[in-house]
User: Fold this.
Amino acid sequence: MVQILVINGPNLNLLGTREPGVYGAVTLAGIEERLRARAGSRAELQFRQSNHEGDLVGWIHEAGRNGTGVILNAGAYTHTSIALRDAISGAGATVIEVHLSNVHARESFRHRSTIAPVARGVIAGFGPLSYDLALEALLDGREGACA
Ligand code: CA2
Assistant:
């Protein structure tokens, strides 16, 4: 069975409680529920969330060691963390970077991602569907890889 680790970073535990205009009304538990329904028997999913950068680094190392694909919403660490970038490249983890919002339509500090260059791909702007699309991309494998 394909193993996939879904990692959510800082403040994403607040989803559904504030800023519905930006992130919608969905909770993290709601995202987990719909992703599990979509995966069905095609993949075994693990969900983790932390507000601490070191936790995310450790989980990426673990995924690299185990050959587990990662769906990563690193939250604001996306825009700041060289440690996360180094963890992904150092561990050799296959990571798809996801965002609920279209970060490129927001403040300019959200346009830059430290992790995008070492991610397998980036999906942003589709709300919870961003996670579903990342799941499909991981399950599809590397055949369609571009640049
Ligand atoms: O759009 C995304 O998924 C983001 O990764 C969300 C991050 C943001 O820093 C990125 O630029 C884009 C923020 C997550 C915070 O989520 C909250 C949810 C509800 C209330 C407050 C924050």
